[in-house]
Specification:
This protein is an alpha+beta fold. The protein is built from three helices and nine strands, in the order αβββββββββαα. The relative contact order is 0.08.
């Protein structure tokens, strides 16, 4: 009887070691997957974020409601997103540096408005090269624009304009906007 018991214990030890190894291998395999390249014939999305390994945006492709607002070094500033469908590119620092936007709609009254915009931004600044089309039945604007901008950081300029827009005195506000190059 003791030999039978020893044989059974040896079998159970081997069985236990084998089962432990199998469970370990399956557990590791469940969480480790090789990198793979996916291929799609067609996809429907509202937004695609192309990101750098450090989490900075490189390109955002989106519809209107999911569109992104201006970003400076990874931080949103200025106005919120949700109003410019298209493609927005970002530089190595995570700052917006150009894009292409497209819009067009017809209202219930039958009147339409349409626009297309392609821009390239100066480093840490706003657009310096634009290709634009705008049409709202009152008139059409089509043009190629080259802007010569002062060396003013766009984030700093946006903060200045925000504080100016908070001014109650409209005469002083308009004068201050003119001084920094903003529209009244």
């Amino acid at each position: 009887m003791s030999q039978q018991l020893e044989r059974d214990v040896r079998f159970l030890k081997r069985y236990s070691i084998a089962m432990t190894a199998i469970v370990f291998v399956l557990s590791v395999a469940a969480f480790v997957r090789p990198a793979r390249h996916e291929k799609f014939t067609e996809i429907d999305v509202e937004r695609i974020n192309v990101m750098e390994p450090d989490g900075k945006y490189r390109l955002v492709i989106s519809n209107k409601p999911r569109s992104i607002g201006p970003i400076y070094k990874g931080e949103p500033f200025g106005y919120k997103g949700g109003n410019r469908p298209g493609l927005i590119w970002f530089n190595d620092e995570g700052t917006e540096n150009g894009g292409m936007t497209f819009q067009g709609s017809r209202g219930a009254d039958g009147k339409y408005q349409a626009s297309t915009h392609m821009s390239f931004d100066q480093f840490d600044e706003d657009q310096i090269l634009n290709l634009d089309y705008s049409d709202d039945r009152r008139g059409r604007l089509t043009g190629f624009t080259i802007n010569d901008r002062a060396d003013v950081n766009i984030f700093t300029l946006s903060k200045q304009q925000d504080s100016i827009m908070a001014m109650k005195d409209t005469v002083a506000r308009n004068a201050a906007l003119q001084a920094v190059g903003g529209a009244t």
